[in-house]
Amino acid sequence: MRKGLKLGIKLGVSAGLVIWAFSGENFRPERLGPILASSRPSALVLALLTFVVSNVLGAVQWRVLLGMQGIVLPFGDLLSLYFTGIFFNNFFVGGVGGDAVRIYEVRRETGRGGGAFAATLLDRLLGFFSLSIFACGTMLVIPSLPFSRLTGAAFVALLASGLAVLLSRRISGLLERLSLRLLPEGMGRKVSKVREGLVRARLDLGRLALAWAISLGVQSLRVSVHYWTGRALGVHAPLWSFFAFVPLIALAAAVPISFGGIG
User: Fold this and answer.
1) Are the C-beta atoms of residues 71 and 112 closer than 8 Å to each other?
2) Could you tell me the CA-to-CA distances from 87 to 63, 77, 91, 103, 210 in Å, in that order?
3) Out of 24, 107, 138, 205, which could bridge 113 as a Cys pair, Cβ 3.0 to 4.6 Å?
4) What are the tens digits of pLDDT across the range 2-14?
5) CB-facing half-sphere around the CA of 179: CA atoms within 13 A
6) Rounded to an integer, what distance in angstroms lies between the CA atom of residue 52 and that of residue 56?
7) Where are the domains of the chain?
8) Which residues have a Cβ under 8 Å from the Cβ of 43 and sit 6 or more positions away?
9) Does the predicted model carry a pTM greater than 0.70?
């Protein structure tokens, strides 16, 4: 009953936001046909190719993070799982359904659920951190944007602090002890395994830095997908504007208040 109620609320939030967006003065349904008819196929092809390359590079990043946990699988299998995860992310709350699918499949293949969770969690956090860097950097460079530089810098600092907390042996150890005390025994053991994976990542800073460098490339390509799609539909906004707004939209879509981030 409670799950159904939560799902209904999220569907309602998504529907309300979509209706609100489409009811604005600048939205005219009769314009959609001519816009789509006049779209540029070459730009759409570039958007599609950029999207595919970003996911291949994302699978490489995930492979690096899994390798830090001692998990080795054929790259073809990881690439297939990554694309499957991207598909499911469109239909689950906060866009994390695909992450759950990836973790489950790696656990099924290797029996290393804790390591798979830690690697996938770091994959998601590095992506958020890279997007925040883009948004904050654009705010600092372009003073005319309607955002506070202090707010952008504070957001990046907050996310960086959260990442540092997760990788801290002392703080993660405290969280582990609290979990073992407050959670059921089986769940507490799972938290311990995840914590071990995060500490292992902290001890391998070289590969962690490599994963973050790849993440910057992945997120740059994904922002560029929006740019090329906009160009195909006649939107000639400068590239920097996409690096300012797309990260904010992506971060907002990760908040679990709507269905699959729709709205």
Assistant:
1) yes
2) 19, 16, 8, 15, 26
3) 107
4) 555 555 555 565 5
5) 16
6) 6
7) 48-253
8) 228, 229, 231, 232
9) yes
